[in-house]
Design brief:
Blueprint (H helix, E strand, L loop, with lengths): L1 E2 L4 E2 L10 E2 L4 E2 L3 E2 L5 E2 L4 E2 L2 E4 L4 E2 L4 E4 L12 E4 L4 E2 L4 E3 L8 E4 L4 E2 L4 E2 L4 E2 L4 E2 L4 E2 L4 E2 L4 E2 L4 E2 L4 E2 L4 E2 L13 E4 L5 E5 L1 H6 L4 H15 L5 H9 L4 H12 L7
Parallel strand pairs: 1-3, 2-4, 3-6, 4-7, 5-8, 6-9, 7-10, 8-11, 9-12, 10-13, 11-14, 12-15, 13-16, 14-17, 15-18, 16-19, 17-20, 18-21, 19-22, 20-23, 21-24, 24-25
Antiparallel strand pairs: 25-26
Helix pairs in contact: 2-3
Length: about 260
């Protein structure tokens, strides 16, 4: 095991021999690390935090710290992180709150760039990118393969759908449609499918064509949302069904 002499590892912490703990890092007594994790330096792992394998934590990242919630009274809530994540400089991930479900989760193979904040009780999927200073308020859900651009604040209880892309500087106060491009340059509105991103993820021309039809019903045709949903339900394929289901279960409304 490689632990720098200046690092502080509390009694009770679980740190496998394959991990590297860099200088001036601190690991709390209720932290469980998976195999092959690397804390480069000045990393804080706190609270009841369970971390998977092969995660890399860059300097000044703080994981499992107390939530920024005035109602929090020190309860033993949790943070859970999957495998193969890259967590860059000064990222903060707060543990959950009792009223919010008690756990903040981050999946696997995500890139969290510098100064990202993941607020209490948020749920981040896998294969996501959160660019520099993306800020998730409490209770936010980021679904798999989503990208949140730099300097994007996401309001409490919002959901960012699968395969969506949010341009930098966009203020998100409603749910972001799966597969969509949403940008502040278009007055914080969706303006089509995330075609380049979907192609990179292996979407076939047929799948893209179906999604383009669905988005025309939503944002280009002279239909209300209920009418557009009826037309989307007529399209074939799981993508159209996923999109329609997402809209129907939205509590905050969707960005169109």
């Amino acid at each position: 095991m490689s632990i720098h002499p200046s690092a502080v590892v509390a009694a009770g912490a679980v740190v496998p021999e394959s991990c590297t703990i860099g200088p001036f890092s601190t690991i709390g007594p209720d932290v469980v690390l998976g195999e092959g994790c690397n804390l480069i330096s000045h990393v804080v792992l706190d609270g009841h935090t369970r971390i998977g394998s092969r995660n890399v934590f860059y300097p000044l990242s703080s994981i499992g710290v107390a939530p920024q919630d005035l109602k929090y009274g020190g309860e033993p809530t949790q943070t859970e992180i999957g495998d193969d994540n890259t967590i860059r400089e000064s990222v903060t991930i707060s543990r959950g709150t009792v009223k919010g479900g008690g756990i903040t989760r981050v999946g696997s193979r995500n890139l969290l760039m510098a100064y990202v904040h993941i607020g209490h009780d948020s749920q981040v999927g896998s294969h996501c990118i959160l660019a520099n200073a993306a800020t998730l308020a409490g209770h936010v859900t980021i679904e798999d393969h989503a990208t949140v651009g730099a300097f994007c604040p996401v309001h409490q209880f919002c959901t960012v759908g699968k395969y969506s892309f949010i341009g930098g500087g966009t203020i998100v106060t409603q749910d972001v449609l799966p597969f969509s491009l949403t940008s502040a340059k278009r007055e914080n509105k969706a303006f089509g499918i995330n075609k380049i991103g979907l192609e990179r993820r292996g979407f076939s021309p047929e799948r893209l064509k179906t999604l383009q039809k669905a988005f025309r019903f939503l944002i280009a045709a002279k239909m209300n949302t209920s009418q557009a949903l009826d037309r989307i339900r007529e399209l074939e394929g799981e993508d159209a069904k996923l999109l329609a289901d997402f809209i129907e279960r939205s509590q905050r409304g969707v960005i169109k």
